[in-house]
Known about the structure:
2 domains, 4-stranded antiparallel β-sheet, 6 strands, elongated
Amino acid sequence: MKIFIIGFALLFALPACKTIVHTHQQVMLSYRTRGDVVKQFGSPDEMAENMGMIIWMYNCDRKPDKVLRGGSAAAVADSSTIHAPLVAKFTRHKRYMQFFFDQQGNVVSYSSRGVDLTQTKNNKTGTILLVTGLTLATAAAVFVVVVGLTMQGPLDNWGQ
């Protein structure tokens, strides 16, 4: 039971080791032009045009979020040379990102599902406090058990 309680406490304490620098929404809103999107994610997997807007679809089913955050190895130097299939209807994906552009190439909106581009950094202070607190809690638990056994005696109640 004690192990369960310690494990449960760890589950809630581990996020203290990371600090959010930028939320997913902040990251997505930082891409303002086609060039910004291409620089980060490369060419889109599919494109569509609807009511004067150009929509780019990125299939993220096989790409881990870490790869998406780090930039694309297939980045294109010039966003005007994008060659992706123009489709009437996008293929369904469990994880995707869509960027909506006006005719000038500015990002008007975005949509994403199953993708988390939240940027975090390690929190050294939180980690130190977590390790120190767990060490002190473990030492206190061991002390209570040892003192309890010493005061009671290991075989005082044997056979009762």
